[in-house]
Amino acid sequence: MAAFTPIILVHLVTAVGALLFGALALASRKGSNAHRLFGRVWVVLMLTTALVSFGIRKFGGFSAIHILSVVSILAVTASLYAAAHGRIGAHRRGMRGAYVGLAIAGIFTLLPGRRLGDLLWNAVGLA
User: How far apart are CA 109 and CA 76, in angstroms?
Assistant: First the structure.
């Protein structure tokens, strides 16, 4: 199994942080100071996760999974723009969609054959 390089560790830590802070932002009262704080931290973590992913390449090139990083950057940016222009419905849909995309990507990283998945399945003795 390949090593967890520093860039992969940054990607992993920011993704897990984004899952946590995204959940807090979604659970908090919309428009509250807590929602804004959790949301801002989530945006930084999401954008960092997506940007850092471009440094993770198999065989030196980009893969189809990098499309998700581009989509995430666009979704978060468009959602911030929507909120700044009072289009709260668009903001809500975009942020929820980006969070769901993050969660789905997280689930796929736990599949056998992926670094984190192999670590998990070997640790529980199922691989």
Answer: 21
Report pTM.
0.89
Report the greatest alpha carbon distance in the chain: 51
Is 1 within a domain? no
> Which one, of 20, 16, 44, lies nearest residue 28 by Cα?
20
Q: Record the tokens describing residue 115, joined without a space.
A: 């670094």
What is the rounded distance in angstroms from the CA atom of residue 4 to the CA atom of residue 121?
16
Q: What's the domain range around 84?
A: 6-123
Q: How do residues 16-52 score in pLDDT, each as one tens digit?
A: 999 999 999 999 999 999 999 999 999 999 999 999 9
What lies within 8 Å, CB to CB, of 120 at 6+ separation is: 110
Tens digit of each residue's pLDDT (9 = 90 or more) over 67-109: 999 999 999 999 999 999 999 999 999 999 999 999 999 998 8
